[in-house]
Amino acid sequence: MRPVPLHYVWDYTDVDRAFWAEHLEDWVPQRIIDAHTHITHPGHRLEPQTEEMRRQYWVSQVNEPIEAAAAERCSAIVFPDREVKYVAMGSPSLEFDIEASNEYSRTECLRRGWWSLAICNPRWTAEQVASELAKPGVIGVKPYYTLLGQDRFTRDRYLEANIFDFLPHHILEVLDERRAWVTLHVPKADRLPHPDNIRQIREIRKRYPKVVLVIAHLGRCYTEPHAREGLPPLADDPGLFFDNSAVFNPAVHRIALKHIGPRRILYGTDNPVFYMRGRRQWRARTYINRTNYDFYFNKEREPPDIEAAYTLYIYEALRAIKEVCQELGLKKEDVEAIFGGNAERLIRSVLAVKSVTND
Ligand SMILES: [Zn+2]
Questions:
Q1: Which of 99, 161, 230, 358 has the most CB atoms less than 10 A away?
Q2: Ligand 1 centroid to residue 33 C-alpha, Å
Q3: Residue 267 C-alpha to ligand 1 middle, in angstroms?
Q4: Cα–ligand 1 centroid distance for 203 (angstroms)
């Protein structure tokens, strides 16, 4: 069959169809909640993205905004015969009009029966946070350290920030009172294992126990050493959740499922980025993205026959999750919990309080 255009420079091809049929069709649950995905209207970009900006970081080059309708269309292609819902957010960047982008994400989610996380400006007052959370369709927030300030030359200017710098206490108080959802992308070059992150996550759990706290990307633990150091210290808190978006490494999924367990991990894609084709490889604490498109970062290409067999990154992630689930002997109910049940339970807990506070 002819390739179907997916998003940006990527298509859905016979390689992907065959991969789905061979590895995923019989295993991926019927109902999926993608608990970490981005939808953005390109018109909400405040300034054009220059070539220089695109070259700063590989994500900047592959992250082309996807509108809600296109995201819905892509989900239907990559998850054939599945019911897919989103917990969606805009682009967490000051390059976008955050208010307009939040409103776009909220209204598009609402009309599709999805749920929205508002990109949370750390400068918001408590009242602004409360009013955002009261809007229909919004279940919580997505804070991010890049929202502390704009820097045209690096997105890492605030990488070493503390969590409370970009998720300040006056905002956490409101989130706690509303029992709202927070998808937290942890800061620091050392990722989740950094002692400040472990300490501050524990502090949030202690001081704001009613916040539905979801640590994004398994704490940005993409390599085995990070996962081994970062995940076990947080394993004993039954009220702390993680999404596994952007994690392709089977070793990381294995550590997460062993220590955190299937009832506290939420499936996520971090799309649209991972409609990218290729595979990831790991070297100690670093990784390399292999892909077949001529991106500036794609200098070390693999041989053509290997590139020809590349499938979508999200399919590679699904296969990694599947292999680990099978290896650990997870039950069907556990797999269904990861792919939607856990998110659904948390969403319901937020909505139960929300309907009361809105009356
Ligand atoms: Zn993300």
A1: 230
A2: 15
A3: 12
A4: 23
